[in-house]
Amino acid sequence: MNRAIYPILSGAVAQEKQLQVFANNLANVNTTGFKQDQQAFRGLLARTSAMASVTMPTASFAASITSRPSGPTERVFTEPHALRTAFEPGRIRITGNPLDIAVQGNGFFEVKTPQGVRYTRNGMFSLDNQRRLVTNLGHPVMGVKGEIKIPPGTVQINAQGAIQVDGNPVGTIKVVEFSDNAMPQKYTEGLFVGGQPKVAANPQLQSGHIEESNVNALGEMVKMIQGMRMYESAQKLIQTLDRMTETAIQDIGRVQ
C-alpha cells in the first residue's frame, strides 16, 4: 500500500470529526443559552524508524498491519486535539414571562443537580410543586442563601437578581463569573462544570427575556459545506493513490 494514503486518511478522519461538531452546533441553533463548539487540530510527525520492520521479525501479521507504517519521518499526520467552547453571548429575546431571565455579560446561573453544583446560561425558569425556582430540567436555581422558594403573588426580578413578590423580598438569584483562563467545561444538557467561579459583584439580568444560542446558522452551514468538500478531496486523493498502486502491481514485471 502507498504510505502517502495514511496522512491523507488522518486528514479525512479529522474533517469527519469536525463535521460532527458543526452538525451538533446546527442541531442546537434554537437551544436557549447554547454555546457553540470549535474543533482544534494538531499535526503529528511520524516517529517510526524505517528499520522497524527489520528489528521486529517476530511481530505478528495482525500487529504489522495495524501499526503505523515505517518510512521517512517527514510525514505529517493530523488528529483532533481539543474542543473549544465559544462563550460569546447570544442574542437576547423578549418572552414576557417574569421567570425567564437572561444574563448580560459573562455570568452564569448556579444550579443544584444530583451530581453536584453545575452552571448554566439557560434562564428559562419555572416553579416546581414545592414552589422552588427550577430550571427546565427541574434542577433548583441557587440563590445567595440557598434554594429559592417563591410564594403566590406577583413576581418581580430586578437587574441584580433580587426577587420580590407583591413588593416583599424573597431571595436573590446567585450569579457567578469565571476568568478567561478558568472557564467551566461543558457537561450535559446545557450545563457546565468546573472552572473557578466567583460570585458576581454586580450582575446584570433581564427579567422577561432569554438568551438564544450563539450559533450562526448560516456560518455553520458554510463551514459544513467547506468541510464536506475537503473530505471529498481527501477521498479522491486516496482513490487516485489506490489506482496508482493497482496500475503498478498490474504492470510490474510485464515483459516488453
Notable characteristics:
256 residues, 27% helix, single chain, alpha+beta, 4 helices, 29% strand, 19 strands
| Proportion of residues in β-strands | 25-35%
Strand order of the largest sheet: 6-5-14-17
Structural class, from secondary structure content?
Answer: alpha+beta
Q: SSE order, as H and E?
A: HEHHEEEEEEEEEEEEEEEEEEH
CA distance, first residue to last residue: 25 Å
Low-confidence stretches: 49-58
Main sheet, how many strands, which sense, barrel? 4 strands, antiparallel
Count of runs of 4 or more consecutive helical residues: 4
The overall pLDDT, averaged over residues, is 84
In total, how many beta strands? 19
| Shape estimate | elongated
Radius of gyration: 27 Å
Helix content: 25-40%
What report would you give on this structure?
The protein has 256 residues and is α+β, with helices and mostly antiparallel strands. 27% of the residues lie in helices and 29% in strands. It has four helices and 19 strands. It has helices at residues 5-27, 52-55, 61-66, 217-251; strands spanning 37-45, 76-85, 92-94, 101-104, 108-113, 116-120, 126-127, 133-134, 142-143, 146-147, 155-157, 162-165, 168-172, 175-177, 185-186, 192-193, 198-199, 204-207, 209-211. The chain has a four-stranded antiparallel beta sheet with strand order 6-5-14-17, with no helix packed on it. Strands 11-12-13 form a three-stranded antiparallel beta sheet, with no helix packed on it. The protein has a two-stranded antiparallel ribbon with strand order 1-2. Strand 12 and strand 13 (168-172) form a beta hairpin. The longest helix has 35 residues, at 217-251. The chain starts with a helix and ends in a 5-residue tail after the last helix. The model is unreliable at 49-58 (pLDDT under 50).
